[in-house]
């Protein structure tokens, strides 16, 4: 097995005493900022005026315009959406970066696809948690962590690796394991994972299963429990002990069904489609399409997003989750309730 770095392996806490600017206070931003602060680091937030600006202030942080935060910081972590980073970088980050500072990302997209071109006198690396921001925060408060990858693009100070590991420890990732990678590998595997398996593959699998059951006349509530609610319970077992532990816990009937029917649904043809998805990521086609979609204000993204929200599985899901107060409500639904 390759070397997975843990907290005990990280001896030099070179982040200590350095001013860290976290740019953005969304999913990853709030988690990095709060975890680093809880670990005794000196954190300020860089943001435009708006919703997160107020939120970060309420949470007790010093919040400054992006340009000001960058000009004060030795470590600048860019946690704005990938598609806005190039513009904010040109206008507010680049002109204010201190020589010898570290420019840090949580995903390799903009460096790998050449959308951000850093100056030669700064360190550039990534520390990419392999989990959603809200879970990065939640696991940290529970004494655990979400694993992360790190990669060095540019090391002018000779300290980039120590800084990356120290940062990973600061956000709690070294409690779970930190793995060395490259910008290319992180970018391409992250995009493939979210498209083919974690987000795209999974939501399509769930939705299609729901449609097959309801179109055959079964109750939507029963279908929801079967293909969406129970997904977490099954995945929790995989998280704890891999596929074998999940199969140990399910009935032998379910395990036999897994063996004979799984490969009928996800088959060689699906594998070929996955390879096409990977090829589009590797060639830059996916990146180009997404950059262009943003340049024309996301007509396709918005149309699909609106349609997806109206899918019957979402409607029945809202009603059923309302009956289960032990399920934490997602931030987004809370916000919608506030607006109404
Ligand atoms: P979010 O969409 O959650 O972050 C939005 C934040 O950026 C908000 O605070 C928003 O402020 C701010 N912002 C948006 N536009 C601007 C702007 N023009 N100027 C200043 N601030 C702005 O991002 P994520 O946390 O999802 O992603 C951040 C990075 O982390 C990305 O590189 C992503 O690939 C990576 N990543 C994300 C993961 C995740 O779990 N989401 C997982 C691993 C990596 P406002 O309220 O004003 O809009
Ligand atoms: Mg990811
Ligand atoms: Mg991603």
UniProtKB/TrEMBL annotation:
Mg(2+) 1 binds at residues 190, 194. It catalyses: (2R,3R)-2,3-dihydroxy-3-methylpentanoate + NADP(+) = (S)-2-ethyl-2-hydroxy-3-oxobutanoate + NADPH + H(+); (2R)-2,3-dihydroxy-3-methylbutanoate + NADP(+) = (2S)-2-acetolactate + NADPH + H(+). Binds 2 magnesium ions per subunit. Gene3D superfamilies: 6.10.240.10, NAD(P)-binding Rossmann-like Domain. Pathway: Amino-acid biosynthesis; L-valine biosynthesis; L-valine from pyruvate: step 2/4; Amino-acid biosynthesis; L-isoleucine biosynthesis; L-isoleucine from 2-oxobutanoate: step 2/4. Mg(2+) 2 binds at residues 190, 226, 230. Its cofactor is Mg(2+). Residues 2-181 form the KARI N-terminal Rossmann domain. Residues 182-327 form the KARI C-terminal knotted domain. The keyword Disulfide bond does not apply. The keyword Isomerase does not apply. The active site is at residue 107. PROSITE patterns: KARI_C, KARI_N. Substrate binds at residue 251. Keywords: Amino-acid biosynthesis, Branched-chain amino acid biosynthesis, Magnesium, Metal-binding, NADP, Oxidoreductase. GO terms for molecular function: ketol-acid reductoisomerase activity. NADP(+) binds at residues 25-28, 48, 52, 133. PANTHER family: KETOL-ACID REDUCTOISOMERASE, MITOCHONDRIAL. NCBIfam families: ilvC, PRK05479.1, PRK13403.1. Belongs to the ketol-acid reductoisomerase family. This is Ketol-acid reductoisomerase (NADP(+)). It comes from Pallidibacillus thermolactis.
């Amino acid at each position: 097995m390759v070397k997975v770095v843990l907290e005990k392996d990280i001896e030099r806490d070179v982040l200590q005493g350095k001013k860290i600017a976290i740019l953005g206070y969304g999913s990853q931003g709030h988690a990095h900022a709060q975890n680093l602060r809880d670990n005794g680091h000196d954190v300020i937030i860089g943001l435009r005026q708006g919703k997160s600006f107020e939120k970060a202030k309420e949470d007790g942080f010093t919040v400054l315009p992006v340009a000001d935060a960058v000009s004060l910081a030795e470590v600048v972590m860019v946690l704005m959406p990938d598609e806005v980073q190039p513009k904010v970088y040109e206008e507010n980050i680049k002109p204010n970066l201190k020589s010898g500072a570290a420019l840090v990302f949580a995903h390799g997209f903009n460096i790998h696809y050449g959308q951000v071109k850093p100056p030669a006198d700064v360190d550039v690396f990534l520390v990419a948690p392999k989990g959603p921001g809200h879970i990065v925060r939640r696991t940290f408060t529970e004494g655990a962590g979400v694993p992360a990858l790190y990669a060095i693009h540019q090391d002018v100070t000779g300290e980039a690796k120590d800084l990356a590991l120290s940062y990973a420890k600061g956000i709690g990732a070294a409690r779970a394991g930190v793995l060395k990678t490259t910008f290319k590998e992180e970018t391409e595997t992250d995009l493939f994972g979210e498209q083919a398996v974690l987000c795209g593959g999974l939501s399509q699998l769930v939705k299609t299963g729901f449609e097959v059951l309801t179109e055959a006349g079964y109750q939507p509530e029963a279908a929801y429990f079967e293909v969406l609610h129970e997904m977490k319970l099954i995945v929790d077992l995989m998280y704890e002990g891999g596929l074998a532990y999940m199969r140990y816990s399910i009935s032998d009937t379910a395990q036999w069904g897994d063996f004979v029917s799984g490969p009928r649904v996800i088959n060689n043809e699906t594998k070929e489609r996955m390879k096409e998805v990977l090829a589009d990521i590797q060639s830059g086609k996916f990146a180009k399409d997404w950059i262009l979609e943003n340049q024309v204000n996301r007509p396709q993204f918005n149309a699909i997003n609106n349609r997806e929200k109206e899918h019957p599985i979402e409607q029945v899901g809202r009603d059923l989750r309302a009956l289960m107060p032990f399920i934490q409500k997602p931030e987004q639904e809370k916000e919608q309730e506030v607006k109404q």
